[in-house]
Amino acid sequence: MSYDKVKQAAKITIGTKQATKVVEQGKAAEVFVAKDADPRITIKMINLCKKMGVKVTYVESMKMLGKACGIEVGAAIAAVANE
Fold it and tell me: Which residues form the Ribosomal protein eL8/eL30/eS12/Gadd45 domain (predicted)?
């Protein structure tokens, strides 16, 4: 899995609440979901993305997603916003 999209994104939104807002506003280009994140958190986002037609990409772990986002802690969900 290449994390280049996350690293190169001009606008990245980290976290469930913030990512949900971006998707609901129709501003998300792609959403990244960590496979080891709590399904109770991620299922709502996955369903919302399906409804809104936003591509969902699964990444191996929260730790790797957090690192790709440039943060020291794990991230369950990150959204790349349209420019």
Answer: 5-82
